[in-house]
Specification:
Structural class: alpha/beta
Strand order of the largest sheet: 1-2-3-4-5-7-8-9
Shape: globular
Largest sheet: 8 strands, parallel, barrel
Distance between the termini: 42 Å
Mean pLDDT: 95
Bound molecules: 5'-deoxyadenosine
């Protein structure tokens, strides 16, 4: 097996069968070989630095009804909130003060005019209020607020957001239709990714790993989907049940196998896509105490500490067992730096941490 694996690792074009082979590894030694190869690829393509993004979950009000999500529109258990503009700016200043360099603004999906104006104002204010000698252009801003029309995406971009995360959730259209209500179309999500790219965003997408009905072949196709769509950033994580969502009736994978599969997905995505940003996501930590460090060890290069105000953190539960109530404080930051160092990496302080892949692709426009 060792020779066969080494043959795959040195390839420039990975076939679907190669990817299935890597994702199906079960032997500890083989998985360690995959991990090493992915870690080396990350070091070679990106360097030693791990970029930090403070994530602010600024509202859990959602107009969508995804069958897997804890803050779906019909969930009656959720106490809904929208953070005040000042609260978001405070969190952003804290991120800048901690040297995070950039933030992610995430919320449930809304498309009404009031929401759009509010987001535009928040983006402008963050840009304005987080400039300092170490960050002359203010914090980098990534948005993660779902499907919007082109005009709206453009307004957010012009206001100062320059990266956007919109997960495709799965590249298998049939599976997509099984986990979303009929008015949420795969084609629309794909169109949104194309619009974002056309406008000039660094485009991020990703999938949920291990949800009911998904096979290894689907995950392999997801990795190829990222490559075919020339994606700049990847955020993916394990599917974890949320008891208030209908998909919970179908259960979930056991945590150990789910962690292993998620880490293999990170490693394989690094091997195939090479120079993209890959986040080690919070959901990894929900299934394993050191899940996010492991993500770094398997080739991820971005960490997103949750810096939402503590009073709302527990109201933004996409899935069960969300960790991180203490994130963003001084003690936490010290620990974070220690963890990054113990993974053989260095935190990228006061840097936006843009995607290398993006930088290369715009040179050829
Ligand atoms: N388990 C894991 N990830 C989830 N998300 C939503 N619900 C769950 C869940 N139950 C992810 C989706 C979405 C992102 C914001 O959170 O992939 O795009």
């Amino acid at each position: 097996m060792k020779e066969e694996l080494k043959n795959i690792f040195t390839k420039n074009d990975f076939s679907k069968d190669d990817i299935v082979c890597l994702l199906s590894l079960t032997d500890e030694n083989d998985i360690e070989l995959l991990r090493e190869a992915a870690y080396d690829t990350a070091t070679r393509e990106i360097g030693e630095k791990v970029s930090l993004r403070g994530i602010v979950e600024f509202s859990n009000i959602c107009t969508r009804n995804c069958f897997y999500c804890g803050i779906r529109r019909d969930s009656r258990e959720v106490v809904r909130y929208v953070l005040g503009k000042d609260e978001i700016i405070e969190s952003a200043k804290k991120a800048a003060f901690s040297g995070y360099g950039s933030i992610v603004l995430q919320s449930g999906e809304r498309r009404d005019g009031e929401f759009i104006e509010y987001v535009v104002e928040v983006i402008k204010a963050i840009k304005d209020k987080t400039k300092n000698p170490d960050l002359p252009n203010g914090l980098g801003i990534t948005l993660s607020i779902g499907e919007q029309d082109e005009k709206t995406y453009r307004r957010f971009f012009e206001a100062g957001a320059h990266r956007y995360l919109l997960r495709i959730e799965t590249s298998n259209k049939i599976l997509y239709s099984e986990i979303h209500p009929g008015d949420q179309k795969f084609e629309n999500r794909l169109e949104c990714l194309k619009k974002l790219r056309k406008i000039g965003y660094q485009v991020g997408t990703g999938v949920m790993i291990g949800f009911p009905g998904q096979r290894i072949e689907d995950l392999a196709a997801d990795v190829l989907f990222f490559a075919e769509n020339d994606i700049d950033m990847i955020g993916m994580g394990p599917y974890i049940v949320s008891h208030s969502a209908p998909l919970s009736s179908k259960g979930m994978m056991d945590k150990e196998s789910l962690l292993e599969l998620s880490l293999k997905m990170i490693a394989v995505t690094r091997m195939v896509l090479k120079d993209v940003n890959i986040a080690s996501t919070t959901a990894l930590e929900a299934i394993s105490d050191d899940g996010r460090e492991k993500g770094i060890m398997f080739g991820a290069n971005v960490l997103m500490p949750n810096i939402s105000p503590v009073r709302v953190k527990s109201d933004y539960q996409l899935y069960e067992g969300k960790p991180g109530l203490d994130e963003g404080g001084e003690k936490y930051n010290e620990m974070l730096i220690r963890k990054i160092s113990s993974a053989g990496r260095r935190p990228a302080l006061n840097e936006w941490g843009d995607s290398k892949h993006f930088k290369k692709r715009i040179q050829f426009l």
